């Protein structure tokens, strides 16, 4: 308990603790004084003297203990113990970001663990934590597209909605153009100087009302950078397929990612294309994007102190008062 208390305590005047050297000097002075006050009588025999004992003799050093504790408490009080509360105020120029996530059926493939969609959700939530001052929105797409979360700085809502994403919420397909179009629509009126879309998909464009090249041109027109991520291993990936009896069987499915299209979208909007073949590479991609798109943040730290000397000052006063009362009452010496 004392260790935990000390972990959260600062002292305004730590040099005052050098006065603790007075305590051993007080003990030395007390022992020396007691020795001088001892009287000696030479007798031929002490057999007639009975061994006597009293409570005064037992507790004769109590006054010294009270005084030592009082002085120790007073020294601690003079050192001004304080608890410190640090408060950080973060201000700066943030970036507006839309996470555009593929939720099509193929995102159930298990070349990433536990599958592509769950891995993408977890690492997108981690990315949200890396951006404390940015506004972030979430758009999901498969055969159609939908704004899941508008631009917001509320990280708890963002992460909650990201973790609640499920396959089957939208018509199946891979409407990359629709995902881009809805993402651009969320960013085009933003006053932020920097606006980016992180487009994550595992397939080729299928369906939708807006072509991917049209979506790319929309992003260019509004000065929005697109970082595109192709998710999936090389060759084939295991995908759970319904077996018709309420269960699922694993089948190998060819990985078809239109890397040429994703690279074109990224390059023409000023972004970059990445390939995530496993969980670790996807994690590194989000870290790389975080490094590339740095927000201007000013952090002001406010330190608030609460004084904690009063209990020690009170203890010193009580102990000194108690020592004085006992000295002139129960322990009073008569000449």
UniProtKB/TrEMBL annotation:
Residues covered by the VWFA domain: 96-289
Spans traversing the lipid bilayer: 12-31, 309-330
Listed PROSITE patterns: VWFA (PS50234)
InterPro entries: Aerotolerance_reg_N, Double_TM_dom, UPF0353/GerABKA_families, vWA_BatA_type, VWF_A, vWFA_dom_sf
Entry-linked SMART domains: VWA
Source taxon at top rank: Bacteria
CDD domains: vWA_BatA_type
Sorted UniProt keywords: Cell membrane, Membrane, Transmembrane, Transmembrane helix
NCBIfam families (UniProt xref): two_anch
PANTHER family: LEUCINE ZIPPER PROTEIN 4, SPORE GERMINATION PROTEIN
UniProt protein name: VWA domain-containing protein
Source species of the chain: Paraflavitalea soli
């Amino acid at each position: 308990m004392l260790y935990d208390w000390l972990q959260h305590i600062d002292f305004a005047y730590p040099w005052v603790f050098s006065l603790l050297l007075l305590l051993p000097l007080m003990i030395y002075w007390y022992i020396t004084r007691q020795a001088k006050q001892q009287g000696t009588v030479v007798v031929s025999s002490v057999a007639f003297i009975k061994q006597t004992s009293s409570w005064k003799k037992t507790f004769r050093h109590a006054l010294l203990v009270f005084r030592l504790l009082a002085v120790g408490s007073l020294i601690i009080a003079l050192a001004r113990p304080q608890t410190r509360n640090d408060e950080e105020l973060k201000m700066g120029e943030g970036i507006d970001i839309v996470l555009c996530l593929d939720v099509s059926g193929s995102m159930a493939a298990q070349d990433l663990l536990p599958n592509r969609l769950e891995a993408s959700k977890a690492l997108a939530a981690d990315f949200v934590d890396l951006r404390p001052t940015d506004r972030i929105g979430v758009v999901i797409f498969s055969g159609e597209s939908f704004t899941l979360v508008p631009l917001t700085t509320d990280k708890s809502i963002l992460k909650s909605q990201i973790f609640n994403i499920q396959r089957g919420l939208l018509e199946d397909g891979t409407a990359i153009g629709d995902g881009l179009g809805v993402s651009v629509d969320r960013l085009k009126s933003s006053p932020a100087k920097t606006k980016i879309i992180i487009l994550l998909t595992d397939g080729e464009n299928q369906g939708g009302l807006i072509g991917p090249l049209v979506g790319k041109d929309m992003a260019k027109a509004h000065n929005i950078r697109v970082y595109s991520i192709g998710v999936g291993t090389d060759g084939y990936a295991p995908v759970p397929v319904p077996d018709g009896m309420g269960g699922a069987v694993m089948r190998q499915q060819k990985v078809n990612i239109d890397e040429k299209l994703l690279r074109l979208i990224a390059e023409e909007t000023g972004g970059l294309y990445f390939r995530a073949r496993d969980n670790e590479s996807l994690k590194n991609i989000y870290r790389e994007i975080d490094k590339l798109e740095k927000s201007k943040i000013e952090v002001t730290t406010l330190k608030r102190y609460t004084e904690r000397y009063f209990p020690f000052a009170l203890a010193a006063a009580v102990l000194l008062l108690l020592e004085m009362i006992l000295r002139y009452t129960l322990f009073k010496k008569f000449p």
